[in-house]
Amino acid sequence: PPFPVYLDGWVTRGFGRGSKDLGCPTANLPDSSIAPYAETLSTGVYFGFARVLDQRSATRSSTTSAFPTSSSSNDSKNEHDGVFPMVMSIGWNPFYNNDTRTAEVHVLHTYPSDFYGKQLRVVMLGFIRPEYNYGSMDALIADINTDKLVALNSVSSPNPSASSTTTETTAAA
Ligand code: ADP
Ligand code: MG
């Protein structure tokens, strides 16, 4: 597809498959976020930038009454603020008989807390690799770590898409 591709949506709860145990929490975007790109985005791993917005979805606004506070005063400060590199996967969701794509975003930043229900805005800048099946957890973790390095190197490259194939050199950098 023609990059950049912009996605945003409310971060939804996943299956809790223990991605935090793997050191790689992935924030799920709702199906509606990628639906417009169903034809153009192939499955695989992408890189770019992400930002968590200081807003909450529906639940909070229904309780705010006649005295709405500005969004920034709901929390003492926006502890999720900032634009950071991200690496994301687009894949088929087995839960829906593989007819729904999922988009999961790992932000290359250590946040002080979770941000379920907040809005995540993403700009995809390039493709890293297709989706693979793994015979072992170790192989999966190794590839995830390489993906993170490729993403970091790619976003700091003057020509982002050019570095996506140089896995070995970027991993060593
Ligand atoms: P789930 O199955 O609900 O997606 P994960 O173990 O994948 O659970 O954790 C994802 C959640 O972790 C995100 O929704 C977000 O609230 C939180 N989180 C904290 N740090 C990050 C990060 N750096 N990147 C993505 N999500 C993060
Ligand atoms: Mg996840």
Automatic annotation (TrEMBL):
GO BP field: FMN biosynthetic process; riboflavin biosynthetic process
Alphabetically ordered keywords of this record: ATP-binding, Flavoprotein, FMN, Kinase, Nucleotide-binding, Transferase
GO molecular function: ATP binding; riboflavin kinase activity
Transmembrane helix listed as a keyword: no
GO CC, one annotated term: mitochondrion
Compositionally biased intervals (Low complexity): 60-73
Region (Disordered): 60-80
Domain Riboflavin kinase residue range list: 1-156
Pathway the protein acts in: Cofactor biosynthesis; FMN biosynthesis; FMN from riboflavin (ATP route): step 1/1
EC number: 2.7.1.26
Family note: Belongs to the flavokinase family.
Role, per record: Catalyzes the phosphorylation of riboflavin (vitamin B2) to form flavin mononucleotide (FMN) coenzyme.
Protein name from the UniProt record: Riboflavin kinase
Organism: Rhodotorula toruloides (strain NP11)
Included range, full protein: 31 to 203 of 245
